[in-house]
Amino acid sequence: MNLEDITTVKSILSQPQKIVIIPHKNPDGDAIGSCLGLYAFLKSLNQEVVVIAPNDYPKFLKWMPKNETILNFERENSQSKKWLEEATVVFTLDFNDLSRTGQLESFLKEKEADFIMIDHHQQPKDYAKVTYSDVNMSSTCEMVYNFIEYLGGLDKIDEEIATNLYTGIMTDTGSFKYRSTSSRTHKVVANLIDCGANNMEIHRQVFDTNSPSRLHLLGVALSNMVILSEYSTAYITLTQDELDAHDFKKGDTEGFVNYGLTLEDIIFAVIFIENKEEGIIKISFRSIGDFSVNEFAREHFNGGGHDNAAGGRSDENMDVTIQKFNTILKSYKSQLNP
Ligand code: 5GP
Ligand code: MN
Predict the structure, then answer these.
(1) Residue 87: pLDDT above 90?
(2) Which pLDDT score, from 0 to 100, does residue 337 have?
(3) How many of the other CB atoms lie within 10 Å of CB of 281?
(4) Partners of 237 in the beta sheet?
(5) How far does Cα 62 stand from its chain's mean position?
(6) Is the CB of 311 under 6 A from ligand 1?
(7) Of 207, 232, 257, which residue is a domain's last?
(8) pTM exceeds 0.85
(9) What is the pLDDT of residues 156-180, one digit of tens each?
């Protein structure tokens, strides 16, 4: 954030405001952690605040401090709309385009308020009064930490804020191992531990509360994996029937796509997950090195994200989607086979 933006934000927050914080649809650890971290910080400034999520989020995040205060736009629709109508400030966190908020998009487009974006995705849209966008950041949670620092509020970081921000940095960096993890990220995380984040407990809550059905579903996913050596690519499919047979719950497939990248010589990993209710195949893309899955997802699957982690969707059925994917891959052969 530049000085002008900091001054603008300070002036907005010097007045009592009614503030709504919005993460993207299907919020992940970084989206929920950044929203709840910012929520607690704004509360400490005596602001009226609420987090409204476009839809539900996985159970492995439902222990996070104050997550029970989050309004689910699908479930608590009229309460959410009331907050949205009355809001004077809208923070949008961990996404770059209002279309990432699903059903909330039309309300946000019409809404007159001071919008503040904090995000690390590529190609941010220009809808906010203040846009704090940095694609080199590990996570939106690291940016919320910076945001608090810019406002001179580091002394406000208590156990609640620290726990939420730690969680998002941890999940978005693959436990501090992805390329975007900088020495600064580690310094921030160290400070968060000093402020009360219980790192061991947070890892346990997020990663070690598996259900047997989820592990069995992982088994199905791994045995469905197709390896295309000539494209250094591995992909996984999961049909709705396979999900149903394993008592699928939101978040159960989190992390499955990464297994492809643990294979030697594989630099592009994809998972295709059927969602019959929405009539789509939801796709996650991951890569190692210079192959940009953001561009791949943007160009061919109506999505986007980061260079090495992106998502998208297909409105065709699974077979047609896989055929399309195989055809597209051919034009990337030289990039994928350096
Ligand atoms: P995931 O594959 O874990 O759902 O998402 C990976 C990254 O891509 C995240 O940063 C996420 O916000 C982004 N992403 C996921 N799905 C979509 C999508 O449909 N459109 C866009 N623009 N980004 C997405
Ligand atoms: Mn993020």
Answers:
(1) yes
(2) 85
(3) 26
(4) 272
(5) 15
(6) yes
(7) 207
(8) yes
(9) 999 999 999 999 999 999 999 999 9
